[in-house]
Amino acid sequence: MSDEDTVGRLLEEGEAPQIPEVKYEYLDHTADVHLHAVLDDFWGSDLKESFEQVATAMFNYMTTDYDRVEMKFVFEIEVSGDDILSLLYRFLDEFLFVFSTEPFFIPRVIKITEFDLETFKIKAQGFGESFDTAKHPQGTEVKAITYSNMQVHQDLDTHNIFVIIDI
Amino acid sequence: MRTFNDEKKFLEKISSNCWHIKKGFVDNMKVDGYFYVNDNLEKLMFDELKQSCNSKGFGGFLPGMKQIANVAALPGIVSKSIGLPDVHSGYGFAIGNMAAFDMNDPKAVVSPGGVGFDINCGVRLLRTNLHIKDVLPLKEQLAQCMFDHIPVGVGSKGIIPMTAQNLEEALEMGMDWSLREGYAWAEDKEHCEEYGRMLQADPSKVSSRAKKRGLPQLGTLGAGNHYAEIQVVEEIYDEFAAKKMGIEFKDQVCVMIHSGSRGLGHQVATDALVAMEKAMKRDQIEVNDRQLACAHIQSPEGQEYLKGMASAANYAWVNRTSMTFLSRQAFAKMFHSTPDDLDMHVIYDVSHNIAKVEEHFVDGKQKTLLVHRKGSTRAFPPHHPLIPVDYQLTGQPVLIGGTMGTCSYVLTGTDQGMVETFGTTCHGAGRALSRAKSRRNLDYTDVLEALEQKGISIRVASPKLVMEEAPESYKNVTDVVDTCHAAGISKKCIKLRPIAVIKG
Prior knowledge:
The complex is a heterodimer.
Chain A: E1 7-10, E2 24-27, E3 33-37, H1 47-60, E4 73-80, H2 84-100, E5 105-116, E6 121-130, E7 144-145, E8 151-152, E9 161-166
Antiparallel strand pairs in A: 1-4, 2-3, 3-9, 4-6, 5-6, 7-9, 8-9
Helix pairs in contact in A: 1-2
Chain B: H1 4-8, E1 11-15, E2 18-21, E3 32-36, H2 39-55, H3 64-72, E4 77-88, E5 95-102, E6 109-110, E7 122-131, H4 132-135, H5 139-149, H6 164-173, H7 175-181, H8 186-190, H9 208-214, E8 227-236, H10 239-244, E9 252-259, H11 262-283, E10 295-296, H12 300-334, E11 346-351, E12 353-362, E13 365-374, E14 377-378, E15 397-400, E16 408-413, H13 415-420, E17 424-425, H14 435-441, H15 444-453, E18 457-460, H16 477-487, E19 490-503
Parallel strand pairs in B: 3-4, 18-19
Antiparallel strand pairs in B: 1-2, 2-3, 4-5, 5-13, 6-10, 7-9, 7-11, 8-9, 8-19, 12-13, 14-17, 15-16, 16-19
Family (chain B): Belongs to the RtcB family.
Protein name (chain B): RNA-splicing ligase RtcB homolog
Organism (chain B): Candidula unifasciata
């Protein structure tokens, strides 16, 4: 996936989405950070939402005040994988990439617009702004996504996802 | 899933400092596993295993012991998979794990998981001719000056001017680039592993994604456990070796820099992981853990990774060199002197996340091996041809970075280590508490206060996260170093304590 496929555009008045409820937590892991998205079994929750939550969990670690991130523009990404785990891996890696390079984009809200588990493709939008150390209190740097004990529980009502990210 | 007690049947203590992991502990083990611990460290290792048995496979993470054993199941591994005393659970390989693969075995593999995402993460130590008495009156200003000079923390950008063309050259030339651009001294190179340049580097094997991540970050420290510290010599165990390193007296001031290849290295590793997953299907390589993705050393994917890894390693040396330059400038400014007059030479620079081609004796026969060291440090003995002339009689200096506010050590390599652990020893304290637990149990103001009481100045980009890096979150570095010393795999030389910490 080259970055030519990713595009950013300024948000119009009232276009910013609602900030969703936090449905992720950070579990104990000796060296790194263990992300866990877990969705209560209520109407409308699905695996797509777990994907969105786990990506948000990653960004929440990069600043100690996530609410300082304003939704000024929307950034689109598109990824594909060979199976559910590689899809999740590349989805997170792509968001890490747009954070780590020009325009150093940090999303406050992530919305998946296309979620295809047949061909393993995702299109997603991030709503946020450029990371600015003068504005956003620095958190911890995420080096990379790992496959280490990565789990996606598609069959459970709670759609749990476990990902270990390297810090 | 086996119970904790069933798991223990595969483990045997073979000496006061070493445990044996027998075949069968995980599937397909080709060789045995071994790990070095003392009593305190042993408990932490078994806690990890117990915790994993309790999670019954839902969520949770693999304990270090299982990871050492999974590495022992990789194709072409030679002799044993070794956990050093700071070993703990990581991803793929354990952190503090080393394994060697036979270059002449066509089935043998190279695994990016055996190097880690932070390729050529390492430690560099500079000396000065200053005494702590010279520094104390200026300590706060000096810490601030270092902090102002070195960009730290997530989202920070380098101040060394770089273009895309410069980056290509830096990836190819490593510290030769720094030298040419005037950021390094000629003698700095002499005191680096590989003389600060891996010759097999090929920047064309580094993706444009990786280069994009690397370009803005060159000359930045990073975050997490990376730091720059002003330290003083607290104890000298081996006067002869210390003198060779230019350490003459107690309370001599040094500077330690711990950093790696930043986003560039992380992306090189990520790219290789994705490419190797495909190669594994093609070449029918089976591994126990997806993060252990690997490729035959001689396959296109294997060769590409090694060339990309070498480029990332060169980036890391340029990165540490750039911060050496900035530290020298900060000291020169504060002491109205020159780095030269302050005798700010590089004592040594070690890589603790790297794979290297080395010659070793296995069962009396000389073999060419690809040695993976992840969170472990090369520790070659005296007279080894690959260590600098200055250290031929002492053995290679090994730099062990402590944690924020605790001691660091300089060790030297030994003949016993060469035989037992392929010339490898520990790399640091190794984590004991998870970051989440540190956040729950410790308060950042307490941690900052404790540092102040110890007389340590701190400048940190994210003060609210210092508890994650608090000494309580780590194993005791002295336990780790003493275990290496007692086991004979390296020898204690110098102990340093921090007086100022700069971190992300």
